Amino acid sequence: MIRKSLLRIIPALALCSCSHTGTFIVEGDIRDVKDSAIVLMNHIDDPVSGHALGVGTDTLKDGRFRFEVPVEDGSDQYVILFLGESFPPNGPILFAKAGKKATVSGRGYLAGSYAVRSRVRNQREWNRFEKVRRKDIESNDRLLLARKEYDPVWFMNARDSISTSIFWKELPLLKKMDVSEVWMKKVHSEARYCANFRSGKEDVKEELRSLLGRCTEEQMKTDYMVSAARYLGDIVPLCVGERLPEMTLHDADGLMHRLSEFKGRDILLEFSELGCGPCVLARPEIESLCTERPEDFTALCINMNRYDVWRPRAESHEAANMLEFNDDDGNKGVFARFRTGVIPTFVLTDTDFVIRDIWTGYTEGSIRKRVTGDQ
After folding, report:
1. 232 near 205, Cβ under 8 Å?
2. What is the DSSP letter of 363?
3. Same domain, 189 and 287
4. Residue 82 has what DSSP assignment?
5. 294-347 pLDDT, tens per residue?
6. Is 123 domain-assigned?
7. pLDDT tens digit string along 118-145?
8. 308 sits in which H/E element
9. Residue at 348 is within a domain
10. By residue range, what is the domain housing residue 185?
């Protein structure tokens, strides 16, 4: 899984060379925490998938931090993360507009529940949801901080229980509020979680499908709603022993490739995103395996950021059988059918694309053990 301490920081100027209309200022006032914690400002470059890229860092001093970021026309989205084992791997969402300012405040280390004050309309709408779910977010943060103490199955069930509690508290707002960008972001987020984790919770699915009925034809064509409708459809999960469907992938030169091109080799699929620390750490081990088996093994590193975001940062590898691709469908395509909801996700197949193993996360040596069968 992603650990924020491993996120790569990408300078703001590298993120976009286009013109902007003004500056968005963020100031933080966090009480009862130790100074020197690193604060990350991350731009959510694709709100539908949630992909985020670091655009700046600051250090807490007397509980304060500050960012100034260029903002283009429209309303950009950001997330603030705090490095350190004392902080959970999440933080407040900010909606930015040129010439506006936001203040982040909180007490203690439960960063997911920090409050954001801003005159940006989308932020005010988002805060209505934050108000009704704050206690549950604090419980979720405490759970994340103590996750190593719990059995993994119990931990996931506990998180699901909290998430379901949040949904039922937010549902009256979703039924009452006008359909807006924030409304669609919320419905999409719930639909995505429902597809990945809430197997059997048909009551939640039915409520979400009912909410989609509030959208106009044009609203249903937006990226948020197209994705939400896919998540709420009948997604058939892919399991060990089943054959991978055909996939269409694009390389950094814009050329299209199909999975079937690699028939006759053992295949390792790695689903990743830019800024994923474990994904970066896993690459040397993957390349080592490719170097050892050049004739019968291929690793396909499949990035799920938007193509225009990924292409300038696409990597090349010495091993000719370790290939970088981009999946236009991102986490709405084949990846969604593995029902992990986590990056990195690894899938190992045989020479006929029959799935031999599916797993998530990375620790040193874990990929080699799975590929060689030396468990």
Report:
1. yes
2. -
3. no
4. E
5. 999 999 999 988 788 888 888 888 889 999 998 867 666 778 778 777 889 999
6. no
7. 999 999 999 999 999 999 999 999 998 9
8. helix 307-310
9. yes
10. 150-234
